[in-house]
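dude i think i finally got it to work??
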Amino acid sequence: MTAVSRKNPDPDGSVQAGEIDPRTRLCGIVRPRKEKEATMVLRAAIVLLVLTGSASVLAAEPEPAPPSPAPSGDPLPSVEEIIQRAEASIAKVNDYTALMLKQERFKKETGPRERMQIKFARPFKVYVKYLEPFAGREIIFVRGSNDNQLKVHKGSFPDINVNLDPRGSMAMGGNHHSIFDFGLENTIKVAAKNLRLAMQRKEGTFDVSEGPAVGGRQTLRIQASFPKAGATIKVGADEDLWKIATRTGQDMYLILYANPEYDEPDDPDEGDSVWVPRYYGARAEFLVDRETNLPLRVTIWDWKGQVYETFEYQDLKLNPGLTSRDFDPANPAYKF
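look at this
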């Protein structure tokens, strides 16, 4: 472990067809016939103008949402300043809740758009409830408990509780990332690592601008592009892609995605050549909350120009005071 122009004003409030401007009325006075005829012609012209004008507005294509206005005339911060602010902000967050949206691409197809309620608390506790698809599915993970396994029930018949290896095929099905990569802090770490490396090597492009509003929150936008660079390495004895990811510091699924001849992390054999990308994608967009300095939406593109993954955090509540009850399968509000 999502790129904006000006929006036309809302056309609501146009004069209704047939409505007469009160200033054209002469109350209690009988007008001459020619004046009445002239008034009728004028009214018809006004109605025609209103109708044709409204039609042209309705037929116009809606434009993308405008960038959120800068709250002051201060110059925009640099990429490094935004990263440092995000790191300082997340260090002060002990727990949070949010509605998380995610969508990921797998080899030749894009998975469904997923919506889930999430809770996170330090040192590393996670609760997830799926809203769509897989409505009712719940996951709890507390590092150091339950033999470091996920507690899961799928929310549909037959609905039983199971314990899963976080890196096993069942837990990783439909996911780029294991639970160990969950949350805002990992998002910031991955972004910081890639942006700083590319800036240090003086490769790629970087731009900071006003971003669109996300859930009513003003944002700054970082747009970055990265070269298709990396290294080809030999698979060692008893080494799978998880171990290669650990050895190289790169994400496991990204390595799997970059080597289409493999379908599973344990497919490579000793002596095989595996290409490990230097960067997490070809292009990235980060929308960062101006007030909290935390990422609200992240979009990554692959080297074919396809969206590789998108994560978005809505209704983010920082330090709400979560307790151990929020990460206990026995919580009566849960369905374990």
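The first helix runs from residue 33 to 59.
im so relieved honestly
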